[in-house]
Design a protein that fits this description.
- The structure is a single chain.
- The protein has helices at residues 2-16, 54-59, 64-79, 139-150, 155-164, 171-192, 244-254, 267-278, 299-315, 324-336, 347-350, 360-369, and strands spanning 21-25, 28-32, 39-45, 48-51, 83-85, 101-109, 112-119, 125-127, 201-211, 214-223, 229-235, 260-262, 285-287, 353-355.
- The protein has 383 residues and is an alpha+beta fold.
- Among the domains are: 2-79, no CATH class; 191-369, Nucleotidyltransferase, domain 5 (2-Layer Sandwich), CATH 3.30.420.
- The chain has a five-stranded mixed sheet with strand order 11-10-9-12-13, sandwiched between helices. A four-stranded antiparallel sheet has the order 1-2-3-4.
- A hairpin with a 2-residue loop joins strand 1 and strand 2.
- Helix 6 (171-192) crosses helix 10 and helix 7 crosses helix 8 (267-278).
- It is globular, with a radius of gyration of 25 Å.
Length: 383
């Protein structure tokens, strides 16, 4: 028992020393030897943890390197807790400021119902449509339209669905809803993303998209562990494009640089890595030799590319390079869509940022509309 505790104690010392543990790939970690003679690979297998060090190989015990990785994962999981975006509720009477308010039925509009309230102190009755002020359609109708659109329906199919619900709006109106609220949420989430805890392994790839009939390239950076979509950029071409900008955006968003960067062999990534990351972060490893199978593959990124491709096919191309649609799909991917590979969690939940409420669109819109650093954009560009 004393020996086990000693190994655990030494493992904790290794974890507490900066730069001793590096995640290479999913379930594979590199732990620096304390004697200064290289590194040991610690791997998670179906039968438990395995280390290359003599202590584990000959004695078949959990060595100090395995304990160090366990502490590393435990603390990382703990960091990713307790960040929650809650739905907003009416807290006070707009007339007198009293918190003594009660629900007082619902107001029936042409396109839905809005909750009414009554103040016990001043006896005034009022309704507050948080985040959806001056909108004719109800929050449920607007967010249902957004959900349908980002899950793969066209604007006209969404319009037909709403018509079956008794809501007669044009596909242009649906598009304006999407543009308005994507811009609203994007400004808010740019600030909120500072609470996101991504891993130290990132993946980058590009896929072609059609914009006004011309082929462009969408550069995207994805977190390897949580599938969180960190940054994106649309480029005219992939061969002569300077990828440093998208990496600068990713580094600024996350407040960190990765320890491992996985890309294909595109020279733009190598240039960005060499000129932006390696000069200031020399222990970052760049993996460029991608294979179809094995550890060095880009399957996670290809699966992500398939998501975006399915959405773009329905739209038959985009109309503008700076369209809000790609930003909206990034929000949908990170905060709304559950992923089977994450056990039903969204990427933001896997990063420790949970959006509560039965309707996560409403929760995000409510918080965005009442956030002090809100980036409002009333322009409604064509997609």
């Amino acid at each position: 028992m004393k020996t086990v505790n000693l190994r655990m104690f030494r493992g904790k010392e290794i974890y507490n020393t900066l730069g001793q543990i590096k995640k290479m790939f999913e379930g594979i970690y590199l732990v620096r030897s304390q004697s200064g003679r290289g590194n040991y690979t610690v791997s998670e297998t179906p039968h438990g943890w395995v280390c290359q060090c003599p202590d584990h190989r000959y004695r078949e015990v959990e060595c100090k390197h395995i304990w160090a990785v366990k502490f590393f994962l435990k603390i990382k999981a703990k960091i990713r807790e307790n960040h929650v975006i809650e739905p907003l509720t009416v807290q006070a009477c707009p007339q007198c400021g009293s918190a003594s308010i009660i629900g007082f039925g619902k107001r029936h509009n042409k396109y839905g119902e809005i909750q009414r309230y009554r103040c016990k102190d001043c006896k005034k009755r009022f309704s507050i449509n948080l985040g959806f002020e001056r909108m004719k359609a109800s929050p449920q109708i607007i967010t249902s339209a957004m959900q349908l659109y980002f899950t793969g329906e066209s604007l006209r199919n969404v319009m037909q669905f709403l018509k079956l619900q008794g809501v007669k709006v044009s596909h242009v109106t649906v598009f304006k809803w999407i543009n308005k609220y994507v811009a609203l949420m994007n400004g808010y989430l740019e600030k909120v993303q500072t609470q996101v805890q991504v891993s130290d392994t990132w993946r980058a790839d590009e896929l072609y998209v059609k914009i006004k009939g011309d082929m462009k390239y969408l550069f995207a950076i994805l977190d390897d562990e949580t599938r969180f979509w960190i940054a994106q950029e649309v480029a005219e071409t992939k061969y002569s494009h300077d990828a440093r900008h998208v990496f600068q955006t990713a580094i600024k968003t996350m407040g960190m640089k990765p320890n491992t960067l996985i890309t294909d062999g595109l020279q733009a990534y190598n240039e960005a890595y060499r000129r932006l990351i390696y000069q200031q972060h020399k222990h970052t490893k760049h993996v460029r030799h991608i294979t179809l199978r094995g550890t060095h593959n880009n399957n996670k990124m290809e699966r992500f590319n398939g998501e975006v491709r399915d959405r773009e096919k329905v739209m038959r191309g985009l109309k503008r390079k700076d369209t809000k649609i790609l930003q909206g799909y990034q929000i949908y991917h990170n905060y709304i869509r559950p992923h089977e590979a994450l056990n039903g969690k969204t990427p933001s939940e896997a990063c420790g940022l949970k959006v509560n409420g039965d309707n996560k669109w409403i929760t995000l819109i409510q918080n965005a509309s009442h956030h002090p650093t809100l980036n409002k954009d009333n322009d409604h560009p064509k997609s």
